[in-house]
Design brief:
Layout (H helix, E strand, L loop, with lengths): L1 H7 L27 E9 L6 E9 L4 E9 L4 E8 L10 E4 L8 E5 L2 H12 L7 E7 L7 E7 L1
Antiparallel strand pairs: 1-2, 1-8, 2-3, 3-6, 4-5, 4-7, 7-8
Length: 154
């Protein structure tokens, strides 16, 4: 739980998309030479019919996260965030990363900051701590959250 303690004190980090980040990892969001691959199995939270998956590429050197998200059986997506929290625990007040999908669809890259990316990677490498970060998908019908899944190493 070492990364969560430092993140609880962290300021909210907003991600901003820039075309320069589109090539952050060769081979796209699924990974490449400059990014560490992670995945998310999205399960129903508010929308009980919904499912989805996400592929992430985490690049601590550039402080960026590339993402490719697929969802099924939910209303139009209105927001995608990364939060700190174990499975079953919610931390909606602290948005660590806002994946700016509105400018690029459900695939693209965004700046997240080196500290956040390193914290996620440290947690993925930890054998004793539960997964402390989750991807949260909000839809038009479920503004408080349609789908959710813990970020895990691919």
């Amino acid at each position: 739980m070492r990364c969560c303690c430092s993140l609880a004190l962290a300021a909210v980090l907003a991600l901003t998309y820039t075309p320069a980040f589109a090539g952050i990892s060769s081979g796209g969001p699924g990974g490449g030479a400059s990014g560490v691959r992670a995945k998310v199995h999205l399960g129903a939270e508010g929308d009980l019919d919904g499912t989805g998956t996400a592929k992430l590429s985490l690049d601590p050197r550039r402080g960026a996260i590339c993402f490719e998200i697929e969802v099924k059986d939910i209303d139009p997506v209105v927001a995608v965030h990364i939060h700190a929290g174990e499975a079953g625990l919610s931390n909606e007040d602290l948005v660590l990363a806002d994946l700016d999908f509105a400018n690029q669809g459900l695939a693209g890259c965004a700046r997240a900051g080196r500290h956040l990316v390193e914290s996620i990677l440290d947690n993925l490498d930890s054998r004793s701590d539960p997964l402390q970060f989750y991807l949260h998908v909000h839809s038009a019908g479920f503004s408080t959250g349609a789908l959710r899944g813990q970020i895990e190493r691919d």
